[in-house]
């Protein structure tokens, strides 16, 4: 069973930055497709960013140009660098993993999920 553990959330003012990390216990992490999703209160969990095993990336339109997803296979870790944060970015952010390499946008395409980390952006 693969475990994903997120960290790096917190409270930040609008315009600020945070970097989220997600460490995987999977022994073949380098082959995984990884993603970040977020869920705001009263809303459905939505796609934020994804990265394939060969580090191709994709982003939701709402975060393009502000967020960057990356991975370090030697550390079994995927990152989400978030810049120019806005109050509407406030949500619980979840890391997700698929044992299939690729870019995936739907929750059902991911087999493993972290517990989530809270990001709060104040205006």
Distance between the termini: 40 Å
Radius of gyration from CA coordinates: 13 Å
Strand content: over 45%
Q: How many β-strands, per DSSP?
A: 11
How are the SSEs ordered, and which strands pair?
Blueprint: E1 4-7, E2 10-13, E3 18-24, E4 33-39, E5 46-51, E6 57-59, E7 67-72, E8 77-82, E9 91-98, E10 112-113, E11 117-122
Parallel strand pairs: 2-11
Antiparallel strand pairs: 1-3, 3-8, 4-5, 4-9, 5-6, 7-8, 9-10, 9-11
Keywords:
single chain; seven-stranded mixed beta sheet; mainly beta; 123 residues; 48% strand
Could you explain the architecture of this structure?
The protein has strands at 4-7, 10-13, 18-24, 33-39, 46-51, 57-59, 67-72, 77-82, 91-98, 112-113, 117-122. With 123 residues, it is mainly β. The radius of gyration is 13 Å and the shape is globular. The protein starts with a strand and ends with a strand.
In short:
By secondary structure, this protein is mostly beta strands. The protein has strands at 4-7, 10-13, 18-24, 33-39, 46-51, 57-59, 67-72, 77-82, 91-98, 112-113, 117-122.
């Amino acid at each position: 069973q693969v475990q994903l553990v997120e960290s790096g959330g917190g409270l930040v003012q609008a315009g600020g930055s945070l970097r989220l990390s997600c460490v995987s216990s999977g022994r073949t992490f380098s082959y995984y497709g990884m993603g970040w999703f977020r869920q705001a209160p009263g809303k459905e969990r939505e796609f934020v960013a994804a990265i394939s095993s060969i580090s191709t990336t994709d982003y939701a339109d709402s975060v393009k140009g502000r967020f960057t997803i990356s991975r370090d296979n030697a550390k079994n870790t995927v990152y989400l660098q978030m810049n120019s944060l806005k109050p509407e970015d406030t949500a619980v952010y979840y890391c997700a993993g698929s044992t299939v390499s690729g870019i995936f946008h739907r929750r059902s395409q991911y087999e493993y999920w972290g517990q989530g980390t809270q990001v709060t952006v104040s205006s």
